[in-house]
Design a protein that fits this description.
The chain is of the alpha/beta class and 229 residues long. It is 32% helix and 21% strand. The protein has 7 helices and 11 strands. The protein has helices spanning 29-40, 53-61, 81-94, 114-126, 158-161, 183-189, 213-227, and strands at residues 3-8, 23-24, 27-28, 45-49, 101-105, 131-137, 146-149, 152-155, 172-174, 178-182, 197-201. The strands form 3 sheets. Strands 1, 4, 5, 6, 9, 10 and 11 form a 7-stranded mixed sheet that branches. Strands 2-3 form a two-stranded antiparallel ribbon. The chain has a two-stranded antiparallel ribbon with strand order 7-8. Helix 1 packs across helix 4 (114-126). The chain is globular.
Length: 229
């Protein structure tokens, strides 16, 4: 079954300039995603979708392919991941290359491992799901959140506030690392989270959004803890 890893790495990061190739513990953060994909041995193609020459060069040095650049439409601040994936698959189709499955990987995912990719792809291939989404449980029940109304804090769900936290239904959120998809399903639905999406559970220690400099420092601390460095 033909499969592709698509690593999305545009050059226009605003909150952390040049985020996708910024050094994370001495290596471009993009290199961690490329390495996990290559080491997994799952993919016929490991490519980086970018609009940036420097990112493309680093991606190639790390062993990924950059056979074409992103269009202007998928390089702006408003382009969704699904738009980027659609463009990549269409560009390969123009070259007569088609894939049955894909793994869409974010470039700022230093905690991603080849083992996680293998396990998630096994879930995809062993069932009838359109895709697999890595998720992590909220550390605090969102049902017991409060909101600000007219300068005062009020419960977002009064009934849940009176319940024990262990009695509340667990809620999960996207880890922001990767998506495994069946290409045929994606081309019909054009969404990263499709009608039939299976979970891949991850531990909170291996998950970290990296949107600010503070996030970056926290991620490096977590990585050192995990790898004892």
């Amino acid at each position: 079954m033909s499969s592709i890893a698509i690593i999305t790495a545009r050059g226009g990061s605003k909150r952390i300039p040049r985020k996708n190739i910024k050094l994370f513990l001495g290596k471009p953060i993009l290199s961690y995603s490329i390495e996990a994909a290559l080491v997994s041995g799952l993919f016929d193609t490991v490519m980086v979708s970018t609009d940036d020459e420097e990112i493309a060069q680093i991606a190639k040095e790390c062993g990924a392919e950059v056979p074409f650049y992103r269009s202007e439409q998928t390089s702006n601040d408003y382009a969704a991941t699904a738009d980027v994936v659609s463009e990549v698959l269409e560009e390969y189709a123009k070259r007569g290359i088609y894939y049955e499955t894909a793994c869409v990987i974010y470039p700022t995912a230093p905690f991603l491992t080849a083992e996680a990719l293998k396990e998630a792809m096994e879930i995809l291939l062993s069932g009838n799901a359109d895709g697999v989404l890595p998720v992590v449980k909220f550390s605090f029940p969102p049902q017991r959140s409060v909101v600000l109304r007219d300068g005062e804090l009020v419960p977002s769900d009064k009934e849940s506030m009176a319940m024990r936290s262990q009695d509340l239904e667990p809620h999960y959120h996207d880890c922001g690392q990767f998506y495994c998809i069946r290409v045929a399903s994606f081309l019909k639905q054009r969404s990263m989270v499709m009608a039939h999406t299976a979970p891949y559970y991850m531990d909170e220690l291996t998950v970290q959004d990296i949107d600010t400099e503070q996030d970056w420092k926290i991620a490096e601390m977590k990585y050192r803890l995990l790898h004892e460095i």
